[in-house]
Amino acid sequence: MSLIACLVFIFAGWQSEPDSSIVSPQDTLVLSQVEVHAAALRKYAFGQYVRTLDKGKLAHLSGYSLGEVLQQETGLFLRQYGPGMIASLSMRGTSAGHNALFWNGLPVNSPSLGQADYSIFPVGGFDAVNIHYGSSGALYGTDAIGGSVHLSSDLKFNTGNELKIGTLLGSFGRWHQQVSYRQGNEKLAFKTNLYRIYTANNFTYKDYASPGTPEKRQDHARVSQIGLVQNFAYRINTAQTLKANLWVNSNNRQIQPLLGSSTNDVQEDRSIRAIIDYTHSGENLTWTASTGISNDVMVFNSDRNETRLFLLGTSLDYAFSQKWQSLAGIRFSHIKGQLATYNRQEQRIELYQATNFRPSQNLGISMQLRQLIHDSEAVPFTPSLGVEWTFFESTEWNWQLISNLSRSFKIPTLNDRFWVPGGNPNLKPEKSLSKEIGLTAKANLSAFSIENRLTYFHMNVDDWILWLPHSTYWQAENVRNVVNQGLEYFFKGGFLQGENLWTIHVDYGLNSAVNQSGDVGNALSQGKQLPYVPKHKIRTQGNLQSGPYKFYIQNQWTGERYVTTDNQTQLAAYSLWDTGITYAFDWKSKLKGNLGFHTNNIFNVDYQVLRLRSMPGRNIQFNLNIVL
After folding, report:
1. Smallest Cα–Cα separation from 540: which of 569, 508, 511, 514?
2. Rg (CA), the chain
């Protein structure tokens, strides 16, 4: 599709503003307008799973980082270099750079590193998390090979005023504070959020790298973070809305040393992100125009690295009929990197189109197409096809078969191409072909409710980039072919017994990520599981809610992880138990909120997520949130 053709398609079909007044048949009751924002991540993702952690689920996680949220609420695996240290996400056995992260539609993966540090995105910066499992490059572009995570702000009109104050106190010098104020009337809505996070991380640990395995206290892992989030929305009229979001964040930390090491590295991360969206909603169409910027500065010891991304895009979501819906758009990105060893900039133009077709009420088909022009050259074309078929439905049961076939890609990072020495400007994009098929079953049986979802996936990732020894330095090369396949199982059950609600959640992941080609200089790596990809991981959580009280107990079991590519060294599996109780209070509708007490790692398990990276033992947390 040419650029001109795409622009013509976007602006075609512009319709006049609809009459928004909604009146009851008796002409006596006027209903207020309800806004529905169906993002492409769910609307055009037939055959794939999009999981939502909304404000209700995040309420008791105030003060947590995004990495801690995903660890607590999902069965996903995060590679953690220590508490408060770098945390990177692995989905379906892929690397950290194969998962895309967005904030209100703005891509925030580092253009230089190609990944995101999930430890420096606190809950105070967003209101909801949507997790898209599986390859989704046709919808979101580069990096979304294993999956994608979407952070969004929830800002509504006609909500009145609300002041919220929250604090969290915990073991090892953990102290978080947050203050937010929101206001919304018929035309204007805004929210201001300030947060401060501090953790001393002075926990004790066993130093397995020292003779006699002495017990020591961590004295170089302090983390401090402050930030401001400003959300703004203005309703121009019944059809037009303008939204703006700003996030300023500063994170300072002492880098926790390896066991047996006495390094004193420090790192500072500063970021400014802003996005402005204009939306025009007609009877059958929604036109959106967006512009945004993401500026990140990382200072490691004395080395300063800065990257900047400028985004400009527009899209048209149009419903031709009840059976046909289509989304088309164009996105321009300008990236500039000023790193310790190089200065580079580049441009990207992306054309994308998605179509939904529902030949019947129980069958949905979606197709997505995306073409990226990277510095005047076309990268791999990325199509995707998904199907959802509800083959059995009754008042009690709903059975659905899902399937998806998609192609994704990852542009080599700035560091991969231009770092001195070792950068390779001739690198090819990493490419993947992904297939998945699954079955979902939902039941509402009197006081019982059950939801099951089982998915088998198979993914082939080619031209995987590795840094390998080359004469006197290391160089980036396209050398690896990896086959990722496995199972994902999600279960949610509920039982209502009088005023007591019992629920159970189970997340299980089987991930086989096998190096098919082997690594240069290491023939033993061929046919072996990739390092730090656990084959098995299971999370189980039970909840009991009785009136204002909620009690939970949770277990996370993580299987063995290989440390080396030849699988000769491995880390032991570990099992962590957490528990907690929360109380929601409402005093004459004038003072509302919740308080909670949590105990993590109840049995004081000594474990490592990554080799020689110590993790804390048993610890407690107390949190209080007040709403005025």
Report:
1. 508
2. 25
Mean pLDDT of 421-450: 93
Rounded CA separation 144/52 (Å): 18
Q: Residues 168, 608, 416, CA angle at the centre, nearest 5°?
A: 95
pLDDT in tens, 170-180: 999 999 999 99
Which pair of tokens denotes residue 105? 């539609």
- In angstroms, how far is CA 247 from the centroid of its own chain? 17
- Alpha carbons 185 and 508: distance in angstroms, whole number: 44
Q: How many CB atoms lie within 10 A of CB 591?
A: 11
C-alpha to C-alpha distance for 396 and 401, rounded to whole angstroms: 17
Report phi then psi at 543, rounded to 5.
-130, 145
Cα distances from 124 to residues 127, 193, 232, 299, 479, in angstroms, run 8, 7, 16, 23, 40
Whose structure tokens read 């809610």? 545
Residue 301 is assigned to a structural domain of this protein: yes
* DSSP code per residue over 468-528: EEETTEEEEEEEEEEEEEEEEEEEEEEEEETTEEEEEEEEEEEEEEEESS-BTTBGGGTTE
Question: For the chain, how many structural domains are there in total?
Answer: 1
d(CA 148, CA 108): 11
Please check whether residue 424 lies inside any domain of the structure. no
Q: Which sign does the torsion angle of CA 55, 61, 65, 67 carry?
A: negative
User: Of 377, 321, 374, nearest to 347 (Cα)?
Assistant: 374
Cut 0.85: pTM above it: yes
Residue 40's pLDDT is what? 57
| CA–CA dist 383, 362 (Å, integer) | 24
Which of these, 134, 122, 196, 148, lies nearest to 438 by C-alpha position? Answer: 134
| Cα→Cα distances 113→43, 96, 108, 273, Å | 30, 10, 11, 18
Residue 114 maps to which CATH number? 2.40.170.20
Per-residue confidence band for 30, with pLDDT thresholds at 50, 70 and 90: very low
Structure tokens at 588: 């004459």
Containing domain of residue 308, as a range? Answer: 3-11+34-391+554-627
Does a structural domain hold residue 527? no
Phi, psi of 5 (to 5 degrees): -60, -40
Distance CA(473)–CA(496), nearest Å, equals 63
The CA distances from residue 521 to 468, 499, 529, 582, in Å, are 9, 64, 17, 54
**What residue has token string 């919740």?**
594
175 within some domain:
yes
pLDDT for residue 4: 36
